[in-house]
């Protein structure tokens, strides 16, 4: 899953490369944080809050 996400973001880089640098920064920060940190940790965070895996 992570590899596919990284490939997808890399495939978008030619399009994103033409954007203003602030938009590029926002895109890559959002893509990195959302998919490389928050979504994989979602179950762990849920468990920490509720004590259940589901």
Descriptive report:
This protein is mostly helical and 54 residues long. The protein contains two helices and no strands. It has helices at residues 2-16, 21-50. The model has no long low-confidence stretch (mean pLDDT 83).
DSSP, total strands: 0
> Which regions are unreliable across 5 or more consecutive residues at pLDDT < 50?
none
- Computed Rg: 15 Å
Q: Give a quick account of the main beta sheet: strands, pairing sense, barrel closure.
A: none
Per DSSP, the total helix count is 2
Question: How confident is the prediction overall: mean pLDDT?
Answer: 83
Brief digest:
By secondary structure, the protein is mainly alpha-helical. The protein is built from two helices and no strands.
Question: What keywords describe this structure?
Answer:
mainly alpha, 54 residues
Helices and strands in order, then pairings?
Layout: H1 2-16, H2 21-50
